[in-house]
Specification:
This protein is of the alpha/beta class and about 300 residues long. The protein contains nine helices and 13 strands. Strand 1, helix 6 (about 135-145) and strand 2 form a beta-alpha-beta unit. The N and C termini lie far apart (about 40 Å).
Length: about 300
Amino acid sequence: MIASIRKSLNGLKRDREHGSGWLTLQALEILKAASSASSAATSEKFLAAINQVIDALAEARPDMVSIANYALHFKGELESAGVTSKSPQRLRRAAFSIATRLIKVNEKAAASAASNAAKLIKKRHIVMTCSYSSAVCSALELARRGGIDFKVLAVESHYNKISYGAITAQRLGLSGISCRTVPDSQLRWHTARADIILLGADTISLHGWLINGAPSLELARVAKRKGRPLYTVCETAKFDVRGFLAGLRHAGPGFDMLPLELITGLVTERGTLQPDDVFKFSIEDLLGSTGDRPH
């Protein structure tokens, strides 16, 4: 494997500051870079080299299935291109083109999900969030640019000396959004003040739960008891339709598993879905037209 690609893969594995949306985009950039940097002399050697990168990406962050979903979708398209092309140069161009297109698909889906979530935010709302989500931050920024005046409470979400709430507040501050960080220990009291709660998601399981940074589970439980609407903002590429984590019983350190029954709705590029809609998705539904609804 090319040294620069290996370095990028290692960086992806170690990154604990960015959310799954940003890291998925980085995974696609790695595929794009690997496609253009290859000097393989035959189509067979090119496919072997790029498949090594694909496999490494699929295993890099198992709790973030959107990375694996995009990597395996890329693999399927590339294999189809390989059937009709015996030239490594043509195959390399095809791989570069596929990666470039999937980056656009990813960016469009993320932008649409954020736009749909921004519509949930009303004037004078107090919006509460937990962990760090680029999708949630994008939605808040869109609402602010749309002239909506609101405030944000960001739970500190401490893990390994990192405050993800502080990262959220720093980003939102650049857009002039009022954001106060809330100590994890005061989560319950502050939830009563919130009008709406927005969370990101690393994975949505078809077995009835989602993964997000701690203490999302406690926040969701308190919101349910206090009757506060709680939405997750994510692209459908985060749906684990392949069952990568079907046997998972406990989230990794710093993460929570939330039953979908605690979620009011899932705001995606296809609109706001009800938790039961998740079970209607299949592999064929992923990375297709953003206007399609699940069967």
